[in-house]
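Thread: Newbie trying to understand structure tokens

Hi all, I'm a second-year student working on a class project, and my supervisor (Dr. K.) asked me to get a predicted structure for one chain before our next meeting. I've only ever worked with sequences, so writing a 3D structure as a token string is new to me. If someone could post the tokens and maybe explain what I'm looking at, I'd be very grateful. Here's the chain:
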Amino acid sequence: MAQKLLIISTLPFLLFTGCANVGQSKEPTLFHEKDQDEIHQTLRLYERMFVSENLDVLDEIFHPMAMLCWQSENPHTLSLEECRKDLRETFGRRNYSSVKIYDTQTEISENVAKLTCKEIHSLEDVDFDDKYNVYITLVRSQGRWRILTKVTARQANKLSISDSSTEEWR
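---
Reply by user tm_fold:
Sure, no problem. This is what the structure looks like when written as tokens:
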């Protein structure tokens, strides 16, 4: 009798905890793998836009209400149209040899994705690369993943004092 009572009282607890964990698996699902691939394609289009100087791509990769923020020595925020104007002027002055997004960490929840990554811009006319920490929010819009917000912060050269000398971290 005590054994039956223990089983009867434990069974609802086991069922509840089992059901509570449904859908919380850390394993990638086919659905999330497809989303990851589509987000990856959006990021690759973004990278290629700089080298090709094709501003028509902006409408494919950015949501119409997108906001882009830069946190640097000159912090500013741009709408998509202001970004288009800014890039048109930049492309007239600079030649990008490459733009690369890497070290991406993505969280997807239904139709919203949060991305943390790094971005590097290589220009043909300078001897250094611009490196950034980037935070992106994407939304599924019109059947594809589009960037809604992008916050970019230039990576600062970090200095460390060791053995009474200063050296740059890389």
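A couple of things are worth pointing out once you decode it. The domain at 29-156 is CATH 3.10.450.50 (Nuclear Transport Factor 2; Chain: A,). The chain has four helices and eight strands. Feel free to ask follow-ups in this thread.
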